[in-house]
């Protein structure tokens, strides 16, 4: 049985202009110029150059003022669309929010794999069989320079991809040759093997050049990595001294040799066929003018835009021809719709750029006022606890809008260029009931670790006690969390001789 019923629903749909603005808010200044170029290429009605007065003020151009003539044109377009709705569709009706996502061209560079293949060309291999094994091994080396695949996996790859049956001994033989490639440590199957390859390489190159007293620390370092790697990795120094029957000074010299080795052989090379170089371009600039902060937007990557005079003149000429003649033909009708759509799209984009600048300035100004003491002094301990909602309440903007402004944006100050996201933090209450930023606590924690006795590093429990002595109510697990966020290892791994 069929039933008909009426119901009311409240739906919120984003207009193309709102979608465009949201996308532009997310674009950092470094990429804004590229985004504008894309729009200039896509829309011939948009031109770069000095803005017209009417666009700067946000008002419509004289040619597009609401007049009887303009109403006639709108009615005419509407009438044409109703006559043949399938002939042409306005962009507003079929806007795809993902349509404008384009990748920025990036330079192509020689990769780490290219470097290995160049050396492979100079390697004397027995036959095509060994050459196929070598190419398979090089293709399996990861971005750190390690071969993290077992020989049996390489054997399977060769069997399935090239119908080539090889033995594990053959793979090991070719692997040894590749491990002699530059940089030392290439194609190691783990950190221990990587360090051993580098130390063996050092001894081989320098045993005829260095006196015994200078070569001994390198030989001792190799013995430690080869025979006592677990004790070394856990920093059981006293155990190493006893088992190797050496003094502390000898161990210190060997440790210095090991610390100079490269745990990631491929770190100095590009690891993919193309790599984007990221430059930090500040979106905002804050200057201290004799104790008064001055905020400005970085607009170097945002050229002035205006609507093409040629497109305006074309629309005017069609409009004038309509008065004199009976009416344009079908092709002229399509041209009118196309021109008006491109002009509207250009006006939307110009307005979106203007709104982007206004929203960004408004948000950053509120952030600057909230963290005024920090921007005056540069002292991280002056940072106040702040979340997105605090700025949203001040600016009357939505939290999502503030988030888009803050994301991937930077501000240039006299203390360096800072990421906006770094100014946001939760609060922590002191013993006096005062709320302080967790950034302040992390800075003090970092100072405590930096100044500790490296022979006896402080445990999380002791760091907690020191922070509590300074008046910060903090738990040991919170100390551990902040320490991990600061990339500070546990006490055992901070130990030094």
Descriptive account of the structure:
By secondary structure, the chain is an alpha+beta fold. Among the domains are: 112-268, no CATH class; 426-497, Orthogonal Bundle (Arc Repressor Mutant, subunit A), CATH 1.10.10.60. The protein is built from 22 helices and 8 strands. The chain has helices at residues 16-26, 29-42, 53-56, 68-83, 112-121, 128-140, 151-162, 168-178, 191-206, 212-227, 229-233, 237-244, 248-259, 309-324, 330-370, 372-377, 388-395, 399-406, 438-450, 460-469, 476-485, 491-494, and strands at 46-48, 284-289, 292-297, 305-307, 410-413, 416-419, 427-429, 435-437. A 4-stranded mixed beta sheet has the order 3-2-5-6. A hairpin with a 2-residue loop joins strand 5 and strand 6 (416-419). The longest helix has 41 residues, at 330-370.
Walk me through the topology.
Blueprint: H1 16-26, H2 29-42, E1 46-48, H3 53-56, H4 68-83, H5 112-121, H6 128-140, H7 151-162, H8 168-178, H9 191-206, H10 212-227, H11 229-233, H12 237-244, H13 248-259, E2 284-289, E3 292-297, E4 305-307, H14 309-324, H15 330-370, H16 372-377, H17 388-395, H18 399-406, E5 410-413, E6 416-419, E7 427-429, E8 435-437, H19 438-450, H20 460-469, H21 476-485, H22 491-494
Parallel strand pairs: 2-5
Antiparallel strand pairs: 1-4, 2-3, 5-6, 7-8
Helix pairs in contact: 1-15, 5-6, 6-8, 9-10, 10-13, 14-15, 15-17, 17-18, 20-21
By secondary-structure content and strand pairing, the structural class works out as alpha+beta
Beta percentage is 5-15%
Helix content: 40-55%
| Tally of DSSP helical segments | 22
The radius of gyration computed from the alpha-carbon positions, rounded to a whole number of angstroms, is 33 Å
The span between the termini is 86 Å
* Low-pLDDT residue spans: 51-73, 79-107
The overall pLDDT average reads: 79
Quick one: biggest sheet?
Answer: 4 strands, mixed
- Assembly state here? single chain
Count every beta strand, where a strand is a DSSP E run of 2 or more residues.
8
Looking across the biggest beta sheet, what order are the strands in?
A: 3-2-5-6
Which overall shape is indicated by the principal axes computed on the Cα atoms?
Answer: extended
Order of helices and strands: HHEHHHHHHHHHHHEEEHHHHHEEEEHHHH
